[in-house]
Structures are given as C-alpha cells and as structure tokens.
Specification:
InterPro entries: Aminotransferase_I/II_large, LL-DAP_aminotransferase, OxyQ, PyrdxlP-dep_Trfase, PyrdxlP-dep_Trfase_major
Distance between the termini: 72 Å
CATH class of the largest domain: Alpha Beta
Protein name: Succinyldiaminopimelate transaminase
CATH superfamily of the largest domain: Type I PLP-dependent aspartate aminotransferase-like (Major domain)
CATH topology of the largest domain: Aspartate Aminotransferase, domain 2
Organism: Peterkaempfera bronchialis
Number of strands: 13
Strand order of the largest sheet: 2-8-7-6-5-3-4
Largest sheet: 7 strands, mixed
Bound molecules: pyridoxal-5'-phosphate
Number of helices: 13
Cofactor: pyridoxal 5'-phosphate
GO molecular function: pyridoxal phosphate binding; succinyldiaminopimelate transaminase activity
Order of helices and strands: HHEHHEHEHEEHEHEEHHHEEHEEEH
Number of domains: 2
Strand content: 5-15%
Amino acid sequence: MSTNDSTHAPLPTGSGAARRVSQLLPVFPWDRLEPYKATAAAHPDGIVDLSVGTPVDPVPELIRKALAAASDAPGYPTVWGTPELRGAIADWLRRRLGATGADPSGVLPTVGSKELVAWLPTQLGLGPGDRVAFPRLAYPTYEVGARLARAEPVAYDDPMELDPAGLRLLWLNSPSNPTGRVLTPEELRRTVAWAREHGVLLVSDECYLELGWDADPVSVLHPEVCGDSHDGLLAVHSLSKRSNLAGYRASFVAGDRALVQELLQVRKHSGMIVPAPVQAATVAALSDDAHVAEQRERYARRRTALREALEAYGFRIEHSEASLYLWATRDEPCWETVAELAGLGVLVAPGDFYGEAGERFVRVAFTATDERVDAAVRRLGS
Ligand SMILES: Cc1ncc(COP(=O)(O)O)c(C=O)c1O
C-alpha cells in the first residue's frame, strides 16, 4: 500500500484521529443557550427551565420495586431481552396501540431510543450514496444518524414529494418534537403505501404516542394504517416520557421481523444490551396503565396553565395537539423571544435548534414541577 494514496492514508494519530467522526456532525447547539440560562438563573426566585423535555416527577413505585428486585444480576443479559420483556412489549403494542399483528419475534429492546435513532442507518448498512429523509422541523438526531453512516441527510416538508432515488430510510415522527403535530391515520396510510411502492424503509418515531391532548395519535403498526403486515416498517418507542424513565434508558423498536432479526445480529456483535434490572423494570412499566394516566393528568394541568399564560402574554400556539411541548411564536426571531423570556427567569428552546423553519418559534416544554410552572405563569402575568 502506498502512503501517497489518499484513500489508503494511514489514520492520523492522537487528536487528529479523535476528531474524524465528530467533524461529520452538526455543532451541538445547546451551548448557545448558556448565556440566556445564566440570565434566567439570576432571577431572584430562580430559573424556570422549560428548555428541555426531561421528566421531573418521581419514577413510579412499582417500577422502582421491579428494578430493585432484579438488582442481583451477575450474569450478562441478552440483547434480545428476556422472554418476559418481549412478551410485555408485544402485549403493550396490541393493547395500547391496537397493533394486532405485534408478536414477540418482531420486537427488540434498545438502550434509550436516541441511540437507535443515531445508529439505525449504520446498523442497517447504509452509507455513501444512500439518502435518509426526516421532517424539516425535527429532533436533530435523525440527521446525526444519517451523518454517522456517511449517508446524505434530506429534510422534507411532505414525504410524498421526495425523490425516491437512493432514498433508503424515511423517518416519521408523530406526535412531533418540536411542534406537537400529529399525523392522521390517512396521512400515515398514504405514506406507508408510498414507502412500500418505492422500496423505502419507513421508521416511525412514536415516543410521544401516549401523550395526545387534542388528538388521538395512531401508530404506524395499526392495521388501519399498515394492513395485515409490518413489512418495511419499524416503530420506535420509549418509556422515558410516558413512565418518567429517561434515567433508566428503557425503549424498544418493533415491526418488520426480518429487519428486527438483522438488527439483533448486528447489535449482538456490538454489545448494545439493556441491563437486566432495566429489562425487569420495563416489564413492570409496560404492564401498568395507571401510572401513565396519573402522569398524563399532571402534564395536562401544566400544559393548560402554560398555554393560557403564553396566549395572554401575546403568543400564538401552533400545532401542539400532543407531546410535551407548546410550539409558540410572537412572530419575531426566536432568539429575541428567548432573550425576553430569560429576562423573566424563564428558559425556553429556540425553534432554530430543530431546523431553520423554526426560526420564529420557541419550544416550551411542560416538564417542570407544578411549583415551577406556577412561577412561570405568575411571571408571564405580571
Ligand atoms: C422525537 C424523539 N425521539 C427520541 C427521543 C429520545 O428519547 P430516549 O432516548 O430517552 O428514549 C426524544 C427525546 O427527547 C425525542 O424527542
């Protein structure tokens, strides 16, 4: 091998080698929010941080008990998960989502859904020349996943207007982060038909599915959407939001059996294993609906209070029929809104974190305690 051949150049050593992958990735935007966070934190009554969608309420007791009961776990867990876990996932898909075709052979636990979103294109062998499409306003990790695989990221307004040439993976996200928009069964049905017609894998990120307020979100695995088969489809689910389990990293992917089996093989070789106590906790969480209903009530109260306060302050709220966010605008650049609210001690996320199309919006999470939400409402009203 010639060292002059750039395609076979030796890997740079030291920090040069360490930067190779991160250089593919977008700049991590949250650092830009730091000065506004400092301003908000200087409020005499403290910051109300509505910028991130991280749960703040306790992990339900029955889930903690299941985790503790499984804590004597000296051996390696399996990547595919225990039969109990796969059974609980399939039961949940059938019971809560109406996905009558779900079965334990078509499900796979993941270590939080973010890692799956980021690594799915790579784990499915996508690479240069392949295209990965996602909504123009979206959770940034869809683009990160495309870039990690060295595939081409493509943002869309309407998936059916995409050029199918080279398109290998199409992301849907309903309910959407950041807008809270919900796709109707008809929109889902048409997109599934389009993806199947063009041989494009459709992956639906449904991690807010149980958090519908003014809409009833439907899974891509529902027979009214996908018919009798899950071919060419995957649904991504997470317990982070519905069960306050962001700290546990509890999630799964389900759908096309052949794809799930392929992912299983790749993930076995790369050690993507959910810890055994978390597997047991996930079984408990998926088998109980009461804690989800209780958590939903907390969020519903906070959402209504914040929505009314923001509207009275002069905001217009768009979409936001589901998820944990209000997508709000005062028809001004988002960083002006961020600065003004930071002056009140309230931190929100600028819409341009989710794509240029969000540059006149802010995303307001209602994942703060009742006490902090009341503080925000008071400050917006004074
Ligand atoms: C749309 C979307 N997908 C996936 C995730 C990742 O969730 P987790 O990794 O906690 O399962 C998030 C988190 O905010 C999200 O908003």
